[in-house]
Write a structure and sequence with these properties.
Layout (H helix, E strand, L loop, with lengths): L1 H33 L2 H11 L4 H34 L6
Length: 91
């Protein structure tokens, strides 16, 4: 019983802290991008389910996706470069 309580508390705190981080990032992102309270409220309502946390999550996931794609392309070009510049082996 006590172990499950602490597990639940740990998970709940993780969600709360994650929401605070996402909401902070979303708040800063929307205010830097639009700089108008009416426009921020309109965009938040229309695209982000009226929550700053959703805006922060979408922004962070976009950044992570871009970083992943760039790393994948660098690895792919590196493999192609190694294959094309390696001399053929003797039989």
């Amino acid at each position: 019983m006590q172990r499950s309580f602490f597990l639940y508390l740990n998970v709940a705190m993780g969600h709360i802290l994650g929401s605070i981080v996402y909401a902070s990032i979303g708040f800063v992102y929307l205010w830097i991008r639009y700089r108008n309270s009416e426009k921020v409220a309109e965009v938040k309502q229309e695209y982000y389910e009226d929550r700053y946390a959703v805006a922060g999550m979408k922004l962070l996931l976009s950044i992570i996706g871009i970083i992943f794609m760039v790393a994948l392309l660098i690895a792919l070009f590196g493999i192609i470069y190694i294959i094309l510049t390696r001399p053929p082996s003797a039989p």
